[in-house]
Amino acid sequence: MPWMENIKNVVVLVEENRLFDTFAGGLSYSHDIDGLLHTKYELVCARAIPKNVAPDDPNHGISGLNMEVLGTYHPDEEDVDEREEMETMMGFVTEQASTYKTVNLTRAAVAISYYAQDHIPVFATMAENFFSSTDGLRPSLARPAYLTSGTSHGHCRNDASFNVAALPQRSIFQQLSEAGIEWINYHNSTTDPMSNPPTGFNPDALFYTWTLTSGKWKTNIIQIRDFYSEGRQTSSGFMKGIYEALRGSPQWNETLLILTFDEHVGVSVGDGLTYTELSPDGKNMIFDFKRVDVRVPTLVISPWVEKGMIEHKGKNNCKEYTHTSIAAFIAKLWGLDDLTPRTTWSSTFEHLITDKFRDDTPSTVSEPVSF
User: Does this UniProt record's set of keywords contain Hydrolase (predicted)?
Assistant: First the structure.
């Protein structure tokens, strides 16, 4: 297929803790963005007054997510699975006030503040020039497992199992190795140096070295992660550096960059697993892993991708993009099997790779701003 011939390298950049409305809800370059500006809803109390570093982290537990999105700690899971209209997003302030035991609603409302377009010029420039998904990839709390193996195997928290390779499923890295496709993991040592970097991760300085050479014989997939407790300005600079390094590299013409974010919990199909958590009201809640929840912003960047295209839903399979859509796409690109029932279920995005090469992609993007 022609689209397969156009992409030889896949770079996946995953940033953390930004849901779609917070990070992309204020983008104003298109009325087709289903965000917070051109809204059809009667009630919108979110405002463009974000902090460079948020003072309070929202509750990441399943019960906290239930309150934030559904307005209750104990929803009927079957109803939630079938009815998106239950997702009112009306409980964020309530849960934030409860978590931090505050009656200061201004402080609690920070959980639903969002970035205006001029707060995030790096991301806005990339979104306007490439493809963006306004319903976004659907995220998971057990973050690396969904992204790299298609399931959390029943885990909803980043417990000790993730530190000792205790999950039994095959990872995408194992799958690539078995197929003879080389891959490299990098950590952000440029803006977030670590005294004890994780095993198996290379400093991102080597990534920039890779972009200076053809690289085709060495690797086909590179994943970089950015934990940006330093703030949005630092993280935007990191994104800018990666994009511009790729854009100026010899392999730009055959590279796909996927930029996405991670937040809250997602759906996991199959295995018959359930998860039980003690909610803040003292009662147990049971999660069945069949839900699709909070949106995160996602960009698909390549000279083979149409300029400024926006897509609200997937075109195949479940008609929803999830984080496992990335693994499902890579499986199609290189003729691999599906890792899990969830990757089989997720929509893929190969239709975004066109047969028309663009020579108008920006060589640089805007500078980060301080606020």
Answer: yes
Span 73-119, pLDDT tens digits: 887 777 766 656 567 777 777 777 777 787 777 777 777 776 767 77
> Where do we find the tokens 């075109």?
315
Q: Which of 160-176 are b and which e, b meaning 16 or more Cβ less than 10 Å from the residue's Cβ?
A: ebbeeeebeeebbbebb
Ordered by start, the domain boundaries in the chain are 2-21+117-352
Q: What is the CATH number of domain 2-21+117-352?
A: 3.40.720.10
Task: Judge whether 84 and 92 are in contact, CB under 8 Å.
Answer: no
How many CB atoms are closer than 10 A to CB 330?
Answer: 25
Rg value, the chain, Cα? 20
Among 28, 220, 211, 226, CA closest to 128: 28
**What one-letter code names the amino acid at 256?**
L
Token pair 């306004």 is found at 134
Question: Which regions of the chain does DSSP assign to beta strands (E)?
Answer: 9-16, 131-137, 183-187, 202-203, 221-226, 255-262, 275-278, 284-287, 296-301, 310-311
Mean pLDDT for 247-270 is 74
